[in-house]
Specification:
mainly alpha; two-stranded antiparallel ribbon; 12 helices; 4 strands; Potassium voltage-gated channel interacting protein 2; EF_hand_dom; Recoverin, domain 1; disordered N terminus; cell membrane; repeat
């Protein structure tokens, strides 16, 4: 059963853990047999959205060409049209949390990936985010997580935003937190979060406070290292 401290780590790292599951779901740990066949997919696939060339994506991300081929094959198998909308995104994540309701957290995550705010996530959107999560520096990853939790993108996390995030995590974890957690547990957790993160006690957490506090947390730092060299 997860403790309050355990959920605090999840609040920062759950997005990264979820991507391990997504990679497995997409079959992205399987070896690539031949490069040409997947390269042809970029050129010949009749999809609604054709991604950037392999060479271009290799320049813009921290993945090799071969890794991008594996990622694209998995992405195209799951999303034949070349893009995924929010409802499909929610469906994918619901498979990993059958005991709970992951729809709200998936909504927040989709918003973080939909950088163009056009209601869909393309392969480029997917690998750009994945590159940060799996291959970025500690600062890169924490910046990405902060942006996820800064729901209105005003440069700070409020208690209201963090409460929405925490409620979505509790809902997603389902029976692993309920009914042992009291109804006011999300509020209690938010207060604990701000006690640690809001260094100047002004009622909001800035990106600087967030990164500094996370770097001081040994558990968070150790957990983040688990995602190094996943693929």
């Amino acid at each position: 059963m997860l403790s309050l401290d355990g959920l605090e780590i999840i609040a920062v790292l759950v997005v990264m853990a979820l991507f391990i599951k997504v990679l497995e779901q997409f079959g992205m740990f399987e070896p690539v047999g031949g490069e040409d066949s997947v390269e042809d997919d970029f050129e010949l696939s009749t999809v609604c959205h054709r991604p950037e060339s392999m060479d271009k994506l290799e320049e813009l991300t921290k993945f090799t060409k071969k890794e991008l081929q594996v990622l694209y094959r998995g992405f195209k198998n799951e999303c034949p049209s070349g893009v995924v909308n929010e409802e499909n995104f929610k469906t994918i994540y619901s498979q990993f949390f059958p005991q709970g309701d992951s729809s709200m957290y998936a909504h927040f995550l989709f918003e973080a990936f939909d950088t163009n705010k056009n209601g869909s996530v393309s392969f480029e959107d997917f690998v750009f985010g994945l590159s940060i999560i799996l291959r970025g520096t500690i600062n890169d990853r924490l910046n990405w997580a902060f942006n996820l939790y800064d729901l209105n993108k005003d440069g700070c996390i409020t208690k209201e935003e963090m409460l929405d995030i925490m409620k979505s995590i509790y809902d997603m974890m389902g029976k692993y937190t309920y009914p042992t957690m009291q109804d006011d547990a999300p509020i209690e957790h938010v207060e604990s979060f701000f006690q640690k993160m809001d260094q100047n006690k002004d009622g909001v957490v800035t990106i600087e406070e967030f990164i500094e506090s996370c770097k001081k947390d040994e558990n968070i730092m150790q957990s983040m290292q688990l995602f190094d060299n996943v693929i």
